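#struct-help
A.M.: can someone run this one for me? Single chain, 379 residues.
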Amino acid sequence: MIIGNRAYSDRIPTVEFAHNDAKAMRDYVTEVLGYRPGNIIDLRDASLADLRKVFGDGNSHKGQLFNYTRPGKSDVFVFYSGHGVPGLRDRRGYLLPKDGDANLAEFTGYPLDTLYANLRKIPARSVTVVIDACFSGESPKGMLVAATSGLTVTAKPTNTKGLTLLTAAQGDQVASWDEEAKQGLFTKHFLEGVYGAADGNEFGNGDGKVTLAELRGYLNEEMSYRARRRFGREQIPTVQGEDELVLAALTSLPAKRKIAQEPPAAIDTQRFDGLWTANMNGCGLSSYGEPVSYDFELEVASSKYSLVVTATPKFGDDPETHDIKGLVGADGQINKLVPFRTLLLDNSNLKVALASVEDQAWLSFNGCRVALKKRKFEN
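D.P.: on it. Structure tokens below:
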């Protein structure tokens, strides 16, 4: 179940990157967890009626999600990115649908208590809930509800047995957005973690599996640090469930997410969908001569990576192909998302072949940032 609620009424700020979060999480559940597209209920800008249709309501838990579940066999995964609000009267947490009124959450929102209670009644093998929202009445764009001074959501529902819960922030905290990544800060770090960062030396045991305990440690350290450093506020995730639950088996990642783990000796250009070029003139690339190691920063889609290229700069029309020496994300892990190769044509033009890139890309060197331009391969 994937929900991305970006658009609200004109009185409620948009959640700028909710649709990006939903798309990225859909990729995770299909490519890593192995869910078939036909088994995914995917909603954008869901109304209260939509939420009741899917999850049921206070009178019945038998919504669409219940009907999709095979008793004892199905693994249910629920993701929500959007606004959450506190009830001004009952001080409980609510998901805010696109047609909701933040000041009347008890009447127009979808209660977290109902969500959790109904999910517990689904006879699934497992249920995991991931929520990138806060319930403080605030957002990075401003207040959602009037007069929230001193207002916090009360403690989590007491009966969460059988559920694995991960939420972006605690009661009185704001769920931050990462403007550079164009994702929620929590979603960004959740995905970094399950794609391998949480299994690294500092947080995990390097066995190729990301457990809930490893992800909790990664989020508590990395996401909370980024929130303090960049936004000057606390953002501590809530993580509940069995520590040994495996959220991702890295050895099961599809081929296109594994190519860059170990740079191959040669890469078939047909694997790539486009050739991206950048003129780096004026960025301080050395002229032809001895081999030089270049440390570039590559921004692709919603992530940043370090790129080290060892090459002998030269002039002329005879390009040389240079395999990358490393593609390392901000988390220090070899990246599995963006396989590419480089072709250094002369001392100012760098060509980068990228796979499955839909958005813009940039290359930075010596503080100089250049947009990459995409064109088709030439025979």
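A.M.: thanks! Confidence is low (pLDDT under 50) at residues 146-151, 252-274, 286-292, 308-348.
D.P.: also worth noting: The chain has two domains: 2-252, 255-375.
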